[in-house]
Amino acid sequence: MLAGLGETIPNPRLLINPFLRKEAVSSSRIEGTLSSISDVLRYEAFEERDPVRTADVREVVNYVWALEEGLQMLPQLPLSMRLLNSVHARLMAGVRGGDKQPGSIRSKQVWIAAPGSPIEDAHFVPPPAENLPDLLQNFESFLNEDLEMPPLVQCALMHYQFECIHPYEDGNGRIGRLLIVLFLCAKGVLPTPLLYLSAYFERNRPQYYDHLFEISASGEWEPWLRFFFLGVAQAAKDALTRSRRLRSLQDNYRDRLQKSRQSGNTLRLLDETFVSPIMTSPQAAKLLRVTPVGARMILDRLVAVGILEVDRSHWPHFYTATEILAAVE
């Protein structure tokens, strides 16, 4: 049903953009960032500089850019380390871990432990760097092999395999989760990237790590596969619910604007509020190719009919579609 929804909506970008940002927030939160979708949207609207949150928000924004780059590369490249290296370079550019060979396979031993702990106290020790070429060649083959195996099973095995190899010095968790949606899109399971598992992994973080570790410790795959499939079911149901809520809001808003005989530009900007539920007048002016004054007039019309709320305590003022944001968050 979710795949069908992605094929039938007139403009998939209206759903893809907010869902992608929700995924970026959830996946980055697993790694310890403290950002919300609102933080990300405000950053994108006018690059707000908050001394406490900017570093975290930039990590999330990098995740958005990295996933978008990966999706754009899929038609030209197979799933491969070449593609992932490019995505990894974008993910790590200018943020925490940016000094750890972004876009390059690690050249030294790493381990997962409390900060500053020696390898003897590690929770998990990935393979030595000299083993990576053979391991990653096998990994690429598995990604692209036409197997008699359900794609979701292959996806679950692929995610574990990547996390176990741990090919980068930093950012492996985010790349591994990002790879799930790239894999499902590459295999044609998802015509539109609307299914994301990071929110499920975040809600069940101890179980997520325990299941991955248990495969390495005991070779038991079934608990991980059950956990993964449950996540897919929950994420698909959640995405359908949110998508329907957003489409209902869009129909309601368009009906409201048409009854009040609003201009075509107002209707165009309405659609853009689903892509960017937080917006400034310069951003709206660029989207509509009108002057900032003209953009403010259109934004204020959306405020007048109750679609947007405006915060005039900043300059430029920022306008928020609170019902859209609530449906996404």
Break the fold down into its secondary structure elements and pairings:
Elements: H1 2-8, H2 13-30, H3 37-46, H4 54-73, H5 81-92, H6 132-144, H7 151-165, H8 172-186, H9 198-203, H10 205-218, H11 222-259, H12 264-275, E1 278-280, H13 281-288, H14 292-304, E2 309-311, E3 318-320, H15 322-328
Helix pairs in contact: 2-4, 2-12, 3-4, 4-5, 4-8, 6-7, 7-8, 7-11, 11-12, 11-15, 12-14, 13-14
Question: Can you describe this structure?
Answer:
The protein has 2 domains: 16-112 and 119-239, Fic-like fold, CATH 1.10.3290.10; 261-328, Winged helix-like DNA-binding domain superfamily/Winged helix DNA-binding domain (Arc Repressor Mutant, subunit A), CATH 1.10.10. The chain has helices at residues 2-8, 13-30, 37-46, 54-73, 81-92, 132-144, 151-165, 172-186, 198-203, 205-218, 222-259, 264-275, 281-288, 292-304, 322-328, and strands at residues 278-280, 309-311, 318-320. Helix content is 63%, strand content 3%. A 3-stranded antiparallel β-sheet has the order 1-3-2, with helices on both faces. α3 crosses α4, α11 packs antiparallel against α15 and α13 packs across α14 (292-304).
Notable features of this structure?
single chain, 2 domains, 329 residues, 15 helices, Fic-like fold, three-stranded antiparallel sheet, mainly alpha
**What is the residue-averaged pLDDT?**
89
Q: Tell me, what's the shape?
A: elongated
Number of strands: 3
Radius of gyration: 21 Å
State the order of secondary-structure elements, H for helix, E for strand.
Answer: HHHHHHHHHHHHEHHEEH
Class from secondary-structure proportions: mainly alpha
N- to C-terminal distance: 22 Å
Counted up, domains total: 2
